[in-house]
Design brief:
Blueprint: E1 2-4, E2 7-9, E3 12-14, E4 17-22, H1 27-40, E5 45-49, E6 56-59, H2 65-68, H3 71-77, E7 81-83, E8 91-93, E9 99-103, H4 116-131, E10 135-140, E11 143-148, E12 156-158
Parallel strand pairs: 4-5, 6-7
Antiparallel strand pairs: 1-4, 2-3, 5-9, 6-8, 10-11, 11-12
Length: about 160
């Protein structure tokens, strides 16, 4: 675990954060870690996990399995279905998923309101800078997308959990 510095750059404030990096950690283990950090520490955290071991369906706290999951193929293929403690849509994650989670105090970013649209806008500013040299960045209702500048590469979709 390492600690990064605080900086403000062209409209996207970046608070002081503790950094956790993982490689291939199961998404359930990551979600348990996130919930513990949220409930037991006052620090700001950035958690990066560059994949997950098994394809898994992750549902938000209020999603209904009967409406969002095709039960027969999930049972047949033994795909795990888990529910995270926070909101958000239902997503399928696998070895090609890169997870980035920010856990921040309400006061970590001056002027940022703790509402989904405001948080998406703030994170979109950060990711826009990260992916700028790789392609055209788009903030979408259900996540973020980078269209690669090199036509031989497919587009990359970043899901916000």
């Amino acid at each position: 675990m390492s600690v990064t510095g605080s900086a403000i750059g062209r409209g996207a404030a970046r608070p002081l954060m503790r950094l956790v990096t993982m490689s291939g950690a199961p998404i359930l283990r990551q979600l348990h870690l996130e919930e513990r950090l949220l409930r037991r520490t006052e620090d700001n955290w950035c958690i990066i996990n560059d994949s997950t071991a098994l394809p898994t369906i992750v549902m938000g706290v209020s999603g209904r399995v009967s409406e969002l999951v095709e039960i027969e193929p999930v049972l047949r293929d033994r795909v795990p279905v888990i529910r995270r403690f926070s909101g958000g849509g239902t997503v399928i994650v696998d070895q090609g998923t890169v997870f980035v989670t920010f856990i921040c105090n309400k006061s970590a970013v001056e002027g940022l309101q703790p509402f989904p649209r405001d948080i998406m806008s703030w994170s979109g500013q950060l990711y826009g800078k990260v992916f700028d040299r790789f392609g055209e960045f788009h903030l979408r209702e259900n996540g973020m997308e980078v269209q690669h500048k090199v036509s031989s590469f497919p587009s990359l979709t970043v899901n916000c959990l």
